[in-house]
Amino acid sequence: MFEDIVVLGSVCHSLNDASNDQYIWKLRSIELRGEIEFHNLYREYIYSDAFKNAKRSYVDNISGKAFKHRCLRQLNAKKNLCKKGYKPHTMKLVGHKDTIRGLHCLGNYALSGSEDNQVMLWDLEHKKGHKYSEHMNWVTQVLLLDDYAISGAADRAVWVRPINLEGETASTYKHDGWVTGISKLSETKIVTCGDGGKLIAYDCKEKQNLHTCTAHDGGIKKMCQNENMICTYSDTESKVIIRDINTFDVLGSLSNDVGAPAARSQYNMVLNEIGTMALTKSNLLITGETKTVKIWDTRI
């Protein structure tokens, strides 16, 4: 809300005057620090050298009321965040014994996976954690759904654990290589990929594979999706393949082969340099070492 007010204030003079309303910024400051501390900070600030210097700089250009608004905004932006001893974090969750490689949040919960082979489900509201120890090697990917905590690891296993579902037990399945990606298809369905080159669609509720296909001859390094398509990239093949998300049928591909030179000449990108991929409704976006974002129209 307050961020939007700041943006609107840059549109025109009338909106700028409205965005400087004293009540708005006082409310924001009180919300951040509490009413008693707000008044203490404001009283401290108006007798400070910073206040006197600011007043001396702007007194010729700003009316008294507008200047007070500026002070309130400066108090909100600087004093709250830069006050000596202020700590922006509010809690520290301790449970892992090695580097955390995966983190996913949903509501007041977070799921983390580590090189200590452990998966932790955190209740952020009550600052409590629950540990899962099924994996035999370091955890590479995690995903949190409304009713399931899901993880994949270098032991090639994907574990699906029910959360607060009475009578339902955890399930697992294996890839040919270590798990490199987990994505959500629906509230009970996921798709995973691995270093063995396979794509697997899985129903968490029914505990069964929906579709399995060998997407690449080499390992799958990256995966992204939208409502209708799923895109995978293999660094060993230097190839991107776009498939139908329901059937895994191939819709198109990009590669560095002689038969498909556009990826290098038209877009000036070697596919084995891919950093990140994203799939919108009609475009595939790829970043790489060229320091630019390349876009392919998936409708062609």
Task: Report a brief summary of the structure.
It contains seven helices and 19 strands. With 300 residues, it is of the alpha+beta class. Helix 3 (22-33) packs across helix 4 and helix 3 packs parallel to helix 6 (64-82).
Features of this protein?
alpha+beta, Methylamine Dehydrogenase, Chain H, Thrombin, subunit H, four-stranded antiparallel β-sheet, 7 helices, globular
Task: Kindly describe this structure.
The chain is an alpha+beta fold and 300 residues long. It folds into three domains: 2-82, no CATH class; 93-214, Methylamine Dehydrogenase, Chain H; 221-300, Thrombin, subunit H, CATH 2.40.10. Helices cover 24% and strands 36% of the residues. It contains seven helices and 19 strands. The protein has helices at residues 2-8, 13-19, 22-33, 35-46, 49-58, 64-82, 262-265; strands spanning 100-106, 109-114, 119-123, 128-132, 139-144, 148-153, 157-162, 171-174, 179-184, 189-194, 198-203, 208-214, 222-225, 229-234, 239-244, 250-255, 274-279, 283-288, 293-297. The strands form five sheets. Strands 1-2-3-4 form a four-stranded antiparallel β-sheet, with no helix packed on it. A hairpin with a 3-residue loop joins strand 13 (222-225) and strand 14. The two termini are 40 Å apart. Mean pLDDT is 76; it is low at 59-67 and 257-270.
